[in-house]
Amino acid sequence: MLIKDTLTQSLAAIGTQRLRAGLIILAMSIGIASVSVLTALGDSARRYVVNEFEALGTNLVIVLPGRTETTGGQPPLFGETPRDLTLDDAQALFRSRHIAAIAPLTIGSAPVSSLGLERETNVVGSTHALRRVRRLTVAQGSFLPETEADKALPVCVIGQTIRNELFAKQAALGQWLRINDRRFRVIGVLASEGQSVGIDFDEIVIIPVASAQALFDTYSLFRILVETKSKPDMYKAADEIRAIVKARHEGEDDVTLITQDSVVSTFDKILTALTLTVAGIAGISLSVAGVLVMNVMLVSVTQRTAEIGLLKALGATKRQLLWLFLSEAAMLSLAGAVLGVMLGYITLGVLQALYPDFPLQLPPWALLAALAVALMTGLLFGVLPARKAAKLDPVAALAKR
Q1: pTM
Q2: Hey, CA dihedral for 246, 250, 253, 256, is it positive or negative?
Q3: Is residue 77 a part of any domain in this protein?
Q4: CA-CA distance, 106 to 208, in Å (whole number)?
Q5: Beta strand 155-158 with 182-190: parallel, antiparallel or unpaired?
Q6: What pairing do the DSSP bridges indicate for beta strands 60-65 and 223-228?
């Protein structure tokens, strides 16, 4: 029996039992579609989160006040607390030759108003370096001027939402914006940035860091963003930053350093594991489809006993009969896989239309893996029926016993 004859015979057998074949293809397609969609969702979530953190800047080190780890035992009687980060701490970090730019941050919430219109929004105090470190784009005007960090200036840069709601009918540049009891002149409008790691840059007002400290009556910094000169410099700079701050804080190692690489790598590992776990759970449906393939093929062997006996009487070997039933199972599995991939792409298209801001894409490896798993499932669960058919005695089979 030639390969062509085997394939022709398998197709003929599938055509004679269309309902049976349709059920197998449907079960397999549902399994493949589930695996495809869930894998795409998990992988897209991973890429989205990683891209969000990479959009924070390049070669970024974030300095936060306080240590992340805790120790056991009773709290100290006199309440030792970590020192606040100050502008002097931020300026001292320039002692490291690995640092390219430093952007200190002070953040608070305050009402902003102009021409009788008012809204509550986030106010960020920083320096001219924030534009470089956070890769911000100015649509109109200019960003904060390059001056000493401790110099308070009554100027601000606003986001697109603030411009649209407070200056909808006139140009925003040159207008006065009141924040609490202080006035700031608008010198720039940011391009639409959207959400970035929980911060909506369209709804913020950026003022000089010294002005923000006076506005919120504080001398501490929320955090310090440090851009290093290169990727290898990140870890060298982190060690030097810790040493500089420790020296300034009387030997207390009371800051937490977060490198951009470590955050991206951590989230990448977590979401990759989550994607594989979800895909594995969805893959259980493929096992169910495989059991259906096996059961239906066993019924097929019983119904085609006379045909098998005739083939063996004409000289078909056990190996040829084995390949005959395995090829039939493989064809059904591949047909289900192709239909499942189509259903998966249709589902992803619908989800993309409903949520256009969330990029959905099925990775190529997942597509190839789904097809391979479907084929292997069909062959694996088709072995038992094929072996049963190959072992039939030709005389007993022709007598349908």
Answers
A1: 0.62
A2: negative
A3: no
A4: 9
A5: parallel
A6: antiparallel
